[in-house]
Amino acid sequence: MAPPFFLVQLSDFHIGADWLDVDPVARLAATIDSVKALRFQPDGVLVTGDIAHHASDAEYEQVLELLAPLRVPLYVLPGNHDDRSSLHRHFGVPGADGEPVQYSADLEHLRLIAIDTTRPGEDPGALDAARLGWLDEELATAPKTPTLLAMHHPPFLTGVRAWDELGLPDADRQALGDVVARHAQVRRIVAGHVHHTIIGELAGRAVLTVPSTYVQLRLDFRSQELELADEPAGFAVHTVLDGELVSHVQPVSV
Question: What average pLDDT does range 116-135 have in this prediction?
């Protein structure tokens, strides 16, 4: 059996926010301490958006300072609170400045593809024909390599109206499912945005959303509004074991 590969997924830092009188910097620092306390060294960190709350340079610089002790490659994509140009400037993500942040990375035993689901200036997401066309072509270049597809907005309905109103449109989710269905190597789709651990499905593939490192959204199927809950932060660990992709969600004690 080949040595396992470990990819940590963090999401929704919201550095600069002031919800529930909880400090997002302290919460992110505690999450990073939990990652450092793992009995294995991560090979990389995937950040699935909403890194900063106001998309200021100071917020992004603070995030880089907090993540630096992990000493691993960062794979970053934007959330609805982020600014694409700032991600290019601070994280050196591929692509033209201000254009959708989407790229692939060949990791050990795993291919990561990040696709941008954001609509600048809006909370709900989108996947237009151009972005889906790029994804279809990118997937076609490595049909035999196990692939993890990462985005910010989850491509499923949660059943919570307030969450789903801020998600992807039905037509965009269907179109993404059509693309994924053509590429058997997509083993898992991962996202953030909903500040909650959820397992869903798209085109027969498991979809996982991970908790925020900051605060969580309260699960209430009757609610018409977003409700915050001071519940534990968390992160995911994705590992390839003998060709199989396994995902764990780890809570953070604060």
Answer: 97
Type of residue at 248: H
3-state secondary structure of 86: helix
Q: Please list, residue by residue across 157-170, b when 16 or more beta carbons sit within 10 angstroms of its beta carbon and e when fewer do.
A: ebebeebbeebbee
What is the CA angle 192-38-76, rounded to 5? 35
The answer to whether the CB of 77 falls within 8 A of the CB of 192 is no
The candidate with the shortest Cα–Cα distance to 202, out of 218, 222, 182, is 182
Residue 211 to residue 154: CA distance in whole angstroms: 12
CA distance 191 to 158: 13
Of residues 211, 170, 168, 239, the one with CA closest to residue 48? 211
- What letter represents residue 81's amino acid? H
- Exposed, middle or buried, 71 (CB in 10 Å: 0-12/13-18/19+)? exposed
Token pair, residue 200, equals: 């869903």
Structure tokens belonging to residue 157:
């309905």
- Tokens 């085109």 locate to 203
> What pLDDT is recorded for position 1?
59
249: exposed, middle or buried (C-beta count within 10 Å: 0-12, 13-18, 19+)?
middle
Residues linked to residue 105 through DSSP beta bridges, in sequence order? 112
Domains of the chain: 5-251 (3.60.21.10)
pLDDT at 2: 64
